[in-house]
Amino acid sequence: MKKRRQPLSPEKEEKITLKDHLHSNLFEQLKAKKKELEAEEQRKKAEEEAKRREEQKRREKNKSFEELLNESDLDWRKFK
């Protein structure tokens, strides 16, 4: 019969981290890669936002008078 391992006490369990198991060199590389990926994600979000704004401007520019009138909150009866 195999002996079961005793779970580590909460104090010891909290102190052991991934950083402790990896070489500092590898850990720094992983942190750099994480920052690089986050920066890439931010850049993509900014590009998508700019693209969406440009598309909105183009649609607004090509609207007909009827579409603009229907979207308007003004009521001509108020100014009669």
Q: Brief description of this entry?
A:
The longest helix is centred in the middle third of the chain and has 38 residues, at 24-61. This protein has 80 residues and is an all-alpha fold. It has helices at 10-15, 18-21, 24-61, 65-71.
Distance between the termini: 96 Å
Radius of gyration: 30 Å
- Work out the helix count: 4
Task: Please tell me the overall pLDDT.
Answer: 81
The percent of residues in helical segments reads 55-70%
Low-confidence stretches: none
Classification by helices and strands: mainly alpha
Shape: elongated
Order of helices and strands: HHHH
- Percentage beta strand: under 5%
What would you say this structure looks like, in words?
With 80 residues, the protein is mainly α. 69% of the residues lie in helices and 0% in strands. It has 4 helices and no strands. It has helices spanning 10-15, 18-21, 24-61, 65-71. It is elongated, with a radius of gyration of 30 Å. It starts with 9 loop residues before the first helix and ends in a 9-residue tail after the last helix. The mean pLDDT is 81.
